[in-house]
Specification:
The complex is a heterodimer of chains A (287) and B (298).
Chain A lengths: L1 H11 L14 H4 L8 E11 L5 E11 L3 E5 L6 H8 L7 E6 L2 E2 L8 H5 L2 E4 L11 H11 L4 H14 L15 H13 L5 E5 L7 H16 L3 E6 L2 H7 L2 E6 L2 E6 L11 H17 L1
Parallel strand pairs in A: 3-8, 3-9, 6-7, 7-8
Antiparallel strand pairs in A: 1-2, 1-4, 4-5, 9-10
Chain B lengths: L1 H15 L1 H36 L4 E5 L5 H14 L3 E7 L1 H11 L1 H7 L7 E6 L5 H8 L15 E6 L1 H42 L2 H9 L4 H39 L13 H23 L1 H4 L2
Classes of the chains: A alpha/beta (287), B alpha+beta (298).
């Protein structure tokens, strides 16, 4: 009964974006909680070990609300890419539950993965464009893979390419474009289906600061249009400047989760922060 | 719409990957050419072997005192009551005498009378069954001697030495031909699938990207399969054209002179064409579709 009430209330809450500051649930206790419909992504005590024995992720618990813009930061090997890979179901967690849009990911069987991926746009550091197709065809392929008609494609592709500032490059091949332009194509491809969730794994890793800014602005515009955006990045400058929620990983563990964070951790130590979260959680439970 | 899209995709990748596609087509062409030559050869050889095997038979000698009624009774036993009987030929005393006298006139001149009995030449339904046939006509008693199935029968003989030799020789020919054929088919399938695999390997990144944007396995696979069908059909058609040229230029003129080439057992050319075309298309389409499986696991 209480659970139903909470669900109902959740639906009537104002949009998640305005609630910038939100409590983070401590790992151990949260494992038994029912899914919260406001969460687009839920990691509950998720661990992932690679076959070679390396730890990809170590008991990570976090939520991403609908319409949030979240930075995932940390040094290489801290588990950022592991999180991304699990979210596109390229890898399976060793233990724990991942829910996307309230649905546990281990319920999606192999045959349904393509349909799941259509609801998640992905942008990679190395762009992953199809080398022997033009800009237009690269974006069109993503649409036709979802079963769009030709009419649909003709209507949507020029639109999204205009949005990403590529109108003049329609018939160029990827190797005729600059890195920034290629990444714009890749963003256009990720967003052409208007997925509710957009993942970007080091989207600016190969780009100069100026070009990076352009890509980040593009991602920000997509977020402003109501899409949940999760960006894994090294780009401290960008994170500090945008002042969005920051989740920091180290050795597969979440060591920081701030509503409007900087790239580097400043005032608080990990323990203090954890205590703060605990008390915030307790307050929430009481109310 | 869907099919049109797959067809366009296949056409695009054929154009974009002209060299690997050409290599795949060439390997289809070569293997089909070899198969096209080999199939009639195998058939002609086994046909010849079968013809020789057809000469294996059992002689049933009747007693010299056998009456016409006896002969009729034995004939009925042979044609109706005995298993493994293929063909029964009656050689009467007179016929046998005439035949033998033609072969050796002086000896029979000397002999004066006709010592030869009436004989049935019985061909078994299959050459391998000759032993069983003989055992039915002349069962072996527990003491190890041979009796006869009918009092009018004097003796049942197969031409032993000849028979075993023919059977083992033709068996060797058939087995080695079958072995060669299997080897050849296996080699062709491996060659084609390897070439296809190579051309797919060059495109595995492409497949990975397709999977990441949410394309289903079959959405990715169909263009590859259609590409395989096109490549296979093109290779097959070219092989058939070359075979046709070879047939018209060499085999047909020789047919008048050499009976082996004109042997009726060899496959009809139209059927051969159909088999080769179907095989080349099936192998290369299946090869593309199956080789892709490894790259689809993303």
């Amino acid at each position: 009964m209480a659970a139903t009430e909470r669900h109902v209330r959740a639906r009537h809450l104002p949009s998640a974006r305005r609630r910038a500051a939100q409590p983070v649930q401590p790992p151990a206790r949260s494992a038994a909680l029912p899914p919260d419909p406001r969460n687009v992504i839920e990691f509950r005590d998720v661990s992932m070990h690679y076959d070679e024995g390396d730890i990809g992720l170590d008991h990570a618990t976090f939520n991403v609300r609908r319409g949030e813009f979240v930075f995932l930061v940390g040094s290489t090997g801290s588990g950022k890419s592991t999180v991304m890979r699990m979210l596109i179901k390229e890898r399976e967690p060793t233990s724990g539950t991942i829910r996307v849009a309230g649905r546990p990911m281990d319920e999606i069987d192999r045959r349904r993965i393509p349909y799941y991926r259509r609801n998640v746009g992905v942008v990679f550091q190395d762009f992953k464009l199809l080398p022997n197709r033009t800009v237009y065809d690269n974006v069109a392929y993503a649409l036709s893979a979802t079963g769009a008609t030709r009419k649909d494609i003709r209507a949507k592709v020029p639109d999204i390419l205009r949005l990403t500032g590529l109108s003049t490059k329609l018939h160029n091949y990827p190797d005729q474009l600059s890195g920034g332009e290629q990444q714009r194509v890749s963003v256009a491809r990720a967003f052409v289906n208007h997925p509710p969730l957009l993942l970007a794994d080091e989207p600016t890793g190969n780009l100069d600061p100026h070009t990076s800014l352009g890509i980040m602005q593009l991602l920000y515009r997509i977020y402003r249009a109501g899409t949940t955006v999760l960006v894994a990045t090294h780009d401290s400058h960008m994170v500090d400047r945008m002042r969005r929620r920051v989740i920091e990983l180290e050795g597969g563990r979440i060591i920081r989760d701030e509503a409007t964070g900087l790239y580097a951790q400043r005032e608080q130590s990990t323990e203090e922060f954890g205590d703060m979260l605990d008390s915030a959680y307790r307050d929430l439970g009481r109310s | 719409m869907r099919f049109g899209f797959f067809l366009r995709e296949a056409g695009r990748s054929l154009r974009r990957n002209a060299v690997p596609s050409f290599a795949a087509m060439a390997s289809v062409l070569v293997t089909m050419l070899v198969l096209g030559v080999f199939i009639p050869i195998v058939q002609a050889t086994t046909g010849a072997a079968n013809e020789v095997r057809g000469k294996v038979l059992v002689d049933v000698f009747l007693t010299t005192k056998a009456t016409d009624a006896d002969v009729e009774r034995v004939r009925r036993t042979l044609t109706e009551d005995t298993r493994h009987v293929g063909n029964v030929e009656f050689v009467s005393k007179k016929d046998a005498y005439a035949e033998e006298r033609k072969r050796n006139p002086e000896a029979y001149e000397l002999l004066g009378s006709n010592p030869l009995p009436d004989t049935f030449r019985v061909t078994p339904d299959k050459p391998e069954n000759i032993g069983a046939l003989r055992d039915t006509l002349a069962p072996v008693t527990p003491s190890g001697e041979r009796t006869v199935a009918d009092p009018a029968i004097d003796e049942v003989k197969n031409r032993r030495d000849e028979t075993t030799k023919i059977l083992s020789a033709t068996r060797v020919v058939k087995l080695s031909m079958a072995f060669l054929a299997i080897l050849l088919v296996l080699a062709s399938v491996l060659l084609i699938s390897n070439t296809i695999r190579l051309s797919l390997f060059a495109r595995r990144r492409e497949v990975e990207v397709m999977k990441l944007v949410g394309a289903t396995d079959w959405f990715i696979r169909w263009p590859f399969v259609i590409e395989g069908i096109i490549v296979g059909a093109m290779g097959g058609v070219m092989a058939i054209l070359l075979l046709l040229v070879g047939k018209v230029a060499f085999i047909d003129p020789l047919k008048q002179d050499f009976s082996l080439i004109a042997a009726p057992e060899t496959i009809n050319f139209g059927l051969l064409i159909a088999v080769l075309l179907a095989a080349s298309v099936a192998v290369s389409a299946a090869g593309s579709g199956l080789s892709l499986r490894r790259f689809l696991r993303v």
